[in-house]
Here is the input.
Amino acid sequence: MIEEIWLHPPLAFARLGPSPVPCDNYRWGMSDLSPGGTGKTVVEPRPSLDVAEDGTLTEREPEGDRVRFKDAAGFRPLCPFFEVHGAWTVDGVRHTGPLTTDVLASVGMELADVRWGVEVANLKAHHCTLSPGDRIEAGAELAGDDHLRRPLEGRSPQGADRPLVPAGRHVPLGSVQVPRPDDRFPELRLRFTPGTGAVYGPTNLPTRSRRFVLPAERLFLSPDARWCEFTGEGDPRTVPGGLFAGSREEDGETSLGLVDDVCDGLVTVTLPGGLSARARIVVTPPDFAPDRRPFTSLADGLADRVKRGEVRDPAYVAEHPQLTALEVRDLFERVLEAMDAVNVDAQNERATLENESTAEELGLPTGPARARTFSPPEPLLGVILALTERGRRRHRRFVALEALEDMFREQPGLIERAVREPGSEDVWYDRRMPVSVRGSDAFPMHLTRRQYDLLVAWVGSLRERVQEGT
Here is the structure.
């Protein structure tokens, strides 16, 4: 019998794209740290699985050493698979691994006994208005032997007051399909395909805004919905500004009623007897720089929640010296990659203006507020973005662990001076890292608490080794 099941991965990201062809499969390889290398992550192509209309799976080998992220139709969507894993016992022997058609047969089940459910929603408008009519939801239920593609049609609750999506219309939120298992690919899977990255608006958008022009077939949302009159004035959910498309020229801060086809939700698989497993799906924009990793990722945020305490243990670095050093080097490799994707000059200018605005709100002089950020440097010969170029050159050195160790040994107190501490109530942008980057809370961005504490502990261990003469 099957005692336990789970979905792998438990959390997956799909990325929007108008191309009908899914993005090639790839993974991040080792960073190119050779003397003539880029110092940044290498994207490595991997074999891809294609799903035909009837659910047949075929494997496609990569074309050389390149990954195709775009084609003539635009970005290729990233379409993740969810695979059922479990634990089962046959003839007294316990097994774990992917569930296959053979495993089902060994416990007296068939594909038709497997039930899939997908529930997704776009709640951006509802998040602001809290009106049930502004919810956009879609779902699908499939048996394990149902291999046709099922669309996810986003609709508003028609029993709710002033629904955003009128009756008879829907916002396409993607599709799902259960591949057909065979001898080569006997595992139980579901594939999620996201939307194309389209934007939809109310029928009266052309009379409300000259700046946003959408095709007529995407203008079907109800202008009577609460989302189309939301102002956000004084509402903390609209900070930082620009989280909703308001027409400042014509309607002040009033929402124009625009929505996109981003969504998130749950994927569920159920077996007879009520045994079930769930995973989360999140739809995001295309990855415009797939070989440029963020210095603070979702994985860092999750680690900060569940593993923050371990790095505060004084013995942690001593017990895991190599692992700690590799994690620190990986952090600075990602910092370099993030630097390569950011216009530091533009961010510094924005941060300076925000400091001025903050000073004016607090009744303080703007001069000291401006001085907190970088002054425009002298232009470099042949270089337009001088701050950006200097930052990239400097951070290039730090992917060499030996150079990083020497820098921290030779400059006591460097972390306190150069790296912004998480949780600070300081609202000012300054020259501490990460420079001039705004976080999702509208305050200067910072590392996670765990990242910062790990860096502090690692630097402390370097100084202890110097004092001990090792």
